[in-house]
Amino acid sequence: MFVNNGTMHKHIIKNCIPGFLLMLVFIPSPAQLYTCGTSVTQQQTEYESTRVDSVALLKEMNRTLHLAVYIVKDNKGQPNVDPALLSGAIAEINAAFDKIKTTFTLFSLSYIDNYNFDEIRMGTNEKAMLAQYAVPDMIRIYLVNKIFNSTGQEISGYAYHPSASTNVILLTKASLNGAFLAEQMGHFFNLYHTHETVFGVEYVNRSNCSATGDRCCDTPADPGLTGMVSADCQYNGTGRDPEGTHYAPTAYNFMSFSPVYCRCYFSEDQYIRMINCMLKAKKHLW
Question: Model pTM?
Fold first, then answer.
């Protein structure tokens, strides 16, 4: 379904202004970057090609999901996380998922005394930590000082897509906020970045929107927003799609790479994708 960008953006801005102002209070600098390390694996592309949705319209889930949070202490035994930030982030994701009546509640908060896990490298000590500290049938969130992906790049966090059958999200302590956590929850429930190209490049006219990009037709084609959004959350890039049409993305979607304080909404198609994931791949979490 094609949505007029101007109309959609006005609606989003109206609904996002209170959250935008609130975020400005807590974010130290608009230039602060949050680098998401979630990527689409071959396993995930195969999962995407075989999945069958059972829900085509927005619906209220009326369910509660439990979070098991682990905070790794540093070499001085300090957790370096204000519990109020965790409570605030959970409150923000609850607001983000309220439209489908899905609530997240803190089931347990545990501290990991092994400081060797305060710096995580994907595929190495990550595996040992996840094996040693786990609660079954919960969404597990691990907070550490630093995270490096498989190529050695420092990132702010990542989540596993549903094809991995792993109920895990990792975040650096410095990136603990509601908008970035909402993005990772989106990945957890089968959403992609709005600029995703693994499935092909989405055209601005959305003629191929169901099979390319983030596979959601009500999110505008996105060239990738890193460094292309002004301090007041306006796209200022000049890129064109493969057909030569200028991009006109939104900077307000949780799954974009706009500044984190700009992000404040999921689209209807994104909610529907998450609902289908909740009912199938993640049904064991209810």
Answer: 0.92
